[in-house]
Design goal:
The structure holds two protein chains of two kinds.
Chain A (H helix, E strand, L loop, with lengths): L2 H37 L17 H8 L1 H33 L5 H13 L2 H11 L6 H8 L14 H26 L3 H9 L5 H12 L1 H16 L3 H7 L10 H11 L3 H30 L1
Chain B lengths: L1 H21 L2 H28 L3 H4 L13 H11 L2 H32 L5 H11 L4 H14 L6 H5 L6 H12 L3 H9 L4 H29 L3 H6 L8 H4 L11 H36 L1
Helix pairs in contact in B: 2-14, 4-14, 5-9, 5-11, 6-9, 9-11, 11-14
The chains are: A mainly alpha, B mainly alpha.
Chain lengths: 294, 294
């Protein structure tokens, strides 16, 4: 068979193989992304069929909207509690567990258990454990003379409690990523550092582990940030943004505007903002990954 | 004789002193922290299963016992599985997750092979689009997709529950990386031997893709089983309710019957705990493939 004929045949086959995927990508990603940008320039609501172009009115409304500011602030507070813990605790766990000969897999299994479990169901368990009057957490705190804490009902505490539940769910996931990163570090790097006089564990960590782990760290930091920005399930089932909008986070507000109040145009503008935030995270990841690879 | 009885004793004491000399305050603290953390990870599961076996009056008893004082397990699980439609919910979740997975694999494997091994015009653009779509979550495109499904009269159908996930750009990317590592020389040799491209895919590439496909399958199944956001938007009737969505019945106010509530939560979580027990390694491989090596 001649080379051009083979190539033409290959190309024809290739198109047949990618066609279903292309059609679905157009229907599920490209089309809706264009549509969401266009919808954000209208005052469309599902309730009435009449709509018109409103330019950037939805975006202007967004930046003046007290609920939007409140949701961003709540998300930021939640992330400020959640992110450092979601990074440092799994890193410490990965290092401590990886060094162990006995019980290593037992610890791995126990810490990983929450990751696959259904968070929506486990959130109900957490809300029972966190109950302000009869919950077992308050009983434990009472034994050491603290509390009772109204974990989910107090505006000052609710974001911390939600961050706690999210941490419980994500620690094992990030730990597994760190363990994979640690196992990929060649032993020879540690031997070389020892010859150079790094014998203390802290020394070893700073001179070998931390730099060699940089690509994993960037990945964990960025994916955890996106996870923090996507907080939804526990809010939807436990607090619905209450008390007094104190747990109304960004994605929950977008959901309310779109699917409870049917303000599709405004919700579309919020979605475009969300896409922008995700894009910034992706950009940071690419830039930092390039730097980490050096 | 005395030698024979003495030698093991000596080595035992040696081992004990050896082990004791390695026990430092630092190591004890680390071990205690690891154990405490593991207890916090597992306790919600123990509490949930324990409560599902208790009568309502005992769930919030101030002296918590792991095993119920009055056993109400049969009644609670009978109520959930027979009186309430939980088997229906579980079946719905199963249908949706399996449907999504089958279409995802059927569209991603050929597309990934074409991108990895065949030359065709537009392949770079397609790959770029796939990578760009990797960062776009369903929350951004949900409004146009929802409106499209409303216009098509498809709300509250299995198709609408599966639709946004029928193509997985993550799977296409993952399999493409995997296929690229497959040696070209073998494919060339097969072509010379008169294999058609389709035979090459079916007989050489597919068997080689099994580990990656297994890892992805577990990952996909778990994430769609646990998804709350999309079913919350498109499901309207009891008949189409998924197991995870059914937990929303208990939002803010519990079923008066606490024991039954946690029996329901257990029933919803158990399939994912089974996945965890039997496919943990595949799941972990899925995560690490996505991140560290991707």
């Amino acid at each position: 068979m001649s080379a051009p004929l083979l190539q033409r045949r290959q190309a024809r086959l290739a198109y047949a193989m990618v066609a279903p995927a292309i059609v679905l990508i157009l229907l599920i990603y490209i089309g809706p992304m264009i549509a969401v940008v266009l919808a954000s320039l209208t005052d469309y609501t599902l309730i009435s069929d009449y709509w018109e172009w409103v330019g950037f009115a939805n975006y202007i409304k967004m930046f003046g909207d007290a609920q939007f500011g409140n949701a961003l602030r709540n998300t930021a507070v939640y992330a400020a509690v959640f992110l450092p813990c979601a990074f440092v605790i799994p890193l410490w766990l990965a290092i401590s567990i990886q060094k162990r000969k006995q019980f290593r897999s037992v610890f791995e299994i126990l810490y990983f258990m929450p990751v696959t479990s259904t968070l929506t169901a486990m959130a109900l368990v957490w809300s029972a454990l966190m109950d302000s009057r009869q919950g077992i957490l308050n009983e434990w705190l009472g034994n050491i003379g603290i509390g009772p804490v109204n974990f989910l009902g107090s505006p000052e505490v609710v974001l911390f409690s939600l961050a706690g539940i999210s941490l419980w769910a994500i620690i094992g996931f990030n730990m597994v990523l760190f363990i994979a990163g640690l196992t990929a570090i060649p032993r020879s790097l540690y031997d070389a550092a020892r010859i150079d006089g790094a014998d203390h564990p802290v020394d070893e960590f700073l001179r070998v582990t931390w730099p060699a782990l940089a690509p994993t760290s960037v990945f964990v930091a960025v994916t955890s940030s996106i996870t923090a920005f996507k907080l939804f399930d526990t809010v939807a089932i436990l607090t619905q943004g209450q008390p007094a909008h104190a747990s109304e986070v960004f994605l929950y507000l977008t959901f309310l505007e779109g699917f409870e109040y049917f303000n599709m145009g405004y919700a579309a503008a919020l979605s475009v903002f969300f896409l922008g935030v995700i894009f910034v995270f992706a950009l940071i990841q690419t830039l930092m990954a390039d730097k980490a690879a050096e | 004789m005395s030698d024979l009885t003495h030698t093991p004793d000596l080595s035992l004491t040696d081992r004990i002193t050896g082990a004791l000399s390695r026990v430092t305050p630092g190591r004890i603290i680390v071990t205690l922290l690891l154990l405490l953390g593991a207890w916090l990870m597992v306790f919600p599961f123990l509490w949930m299963v324990s409560s599902s076996l208790k009568p309502t009056s005992e769930v919030f008893d101030s002296d918590f016992t792991l095993w119920p004082k009055t056993f109400a397990g049969w009644q609670n699980y009978y109520d959930v599985l027979v009186t309430q439609p939980y088997l229906r919910y579980l079946t719905n979740s199963m249908i949706v997750c399996v449907g999504i997975l089958v279409v995802q694999l059927a569209t991603a494997v050929p597309a990934a092979y074409a991108l990895a091994k065949l030359k065709f015009r537009g392949s770079t653009i397609l790959l770029g689009t796939v990578i760009a779509c990797l960062t776009v979550p369903i929350n951004v495109t949900s409004i146009p997709i929802y409106l499209g499904l409303v216009k098509a009269g498809l709300l509250d159908t299995y198709l609408s529950m599966m639709f946004p996930f029928l193509v997985s750009v993550f799977a296409i990317f993952l399999f493409r990386q995997f296929f690229r590592a497959y040696p070209d020389s073998i494919i060339q040799a097969a072509r010379v031997d008169g294999f058609t491209e389709i035979e090459i895919v079916l007989r050489l590439i597919l068997p080689a893709a099994v580990p990656a496909a297994a890892a992805f399958s577990v990952f996909s199944f778990v994430s769609h089983w646990n998804d709350l956001y999309w079913p919350l938007i498109v499901v309207q009737s009891q008949e189409k309710m998924t197991a995870t969505l059914s937990m929303m019945q208990y939002k803010s106010t519990f079923d008066i019957n606490y024991g039954r509530t946690f029996a329901a939560a257990t029933v919803v979580t158990v399939p994912m705990l089974l996945v965890f027990l039997f496919a943990r390694r595949a799941f972990v491989r899925g995560i690490t493939m996505s991140g560290v090596k991707g």
